[in-house]
Specification:
Radius of gyration: 23 Å
Structural class: alpha/beta
Distance between the termini: 28 Å
CATH superfamily of the largest domain: Glycogen Phosphorylase B
Number of helices: 17
Shape: globular
Strand order of the largest sheet: 2-1-3-4-5-6
Order of helices and strands: EHEHEHHEHEHHEHHEHEHEHEHEHEHHH
CATH topology of the largest domain: Rossmann fold
Strand content: 5-15%
Number of strands: 12
CATH architecture of the largest domain: 3-Layer(aba) Sandwich
Length: 468
Amino acid sequence: MQSEVSPSLSVLLVEAFYGGSHKQLIDLLKENIDGCCVFTLPAKKWHWRARTAALHFSQTIPSCPSYRVLFSSSVLNLCELVALRPDLARLKKVLYFHENQLVYPVRKDQERDFQYGYNQVLSCLVSDVVVFNSSFNMESFLSSIPSFMKKIPDHRPKDLDRLIRPKCMVLNYPVQFPDVSRLLPKHKLLRRTANVDDQKPVSDQDPHQPISGPTTDPHQPTSGPTTDPHQPTSGPTTDPHQPTSGPTTDPHQPTSGPTTDPHQPTSGPTTDPHQSTSEPRTDQDPAGEAADQVKPLHIVWPHRWEHDKNPELFFNTLLKLKERRLDFHLSVLGETFTDVPEIFSEARRLLDSHILNWGYLPSKDDYLQVLCQADVVVSTANHEFFGVAMLEAVHCGCYPLCPKALVYPEIFPAQYLYSTPEQLCKRLQGLCRRPDVARRHVVAVDTCSYSWAALKSRFQTLLADEGP
């Protein structure tokens, strides 16, 4: 896709992988920033986009004397583009990192393709401003550069991280949170205006204790966007349970599967177990608020069906809950791709009686409806640089449970973090026994601070031609 060029255009938006969060950001900037001109490539064949997009754009982006700023994601080899197009080299060049290839999980480090990370380092060196969607993303990238460069057999460059760091800043990804009040059940609507001074995290050991104030760990980062790019974080946090995902793969289009009656119970995989339902099913009880406090806990997992999201940990945890005869309902959402982990078909069979929704929901409204009806949202990711799905679920009133690793301590207070699989199981076990605890808890995360309304002025400044 490309925009028509006019003399009034001053911001050149270039996206080599125009899909998902990359597309959402480009569209958001084009709609809200004056003078934008957009050039993109479809979101497929990721590896080839990273290798060859610069050459394509060097031939398709016309010369325009009014350009002042070039904005691109780190998929593009910006170094190659400005070398091929000296007229673009004079622009203020802004590079945005949705992810970074230096710590992107692979099954074996030997499988990591050196070139992708190397391209990102080169792109940083020619950029004027390097922007990361989280402090974890920035620090994991910068702290990994020295060891990454040691893979070069000899004549290794030095101090590249020190050259790049002064250009770096954190600017959280702007999430467009819709108004979901019409989709919220009664208890969530009432909860939004309730006094929440008496909240604390639920524990399986004593589920009958009242909730008290939010417990925070003074050593954990507070929620909300990080604005000081020079404050160090803990660097690339690794999960003791190593990720099982393969190297960065070619993302494909999601599957949607056959349409089923949303009011009928799921009967397990009668055809392809990887196919999804396309309409949401909810467990809302019309009897009202009283029934809302006693029905089974509704757990949602809204992530891509890939190994780096660690679905094995999630489903193994739920199977333990089932073995202990705990009641719960389950919605497994998210996009599916060509190589779906086998655990999904096995889990659908073993957890059949608990399943309310299974698979990708192409309708955003249907997706939000399921989130609004759910009680708890879980992440088991081995890879996350920001986590839009978790924030969307919190916006819809879900109680979050996330690993105490990756980006999550940056966004979520300590009460929503778990360190081990045993802790995750214990937290879910406690909530299954007391689902009302999750339903009357107001999550201590200010999602508004990650909204476009809160971040718009910073993006406007970033794309202004007044220097970094």
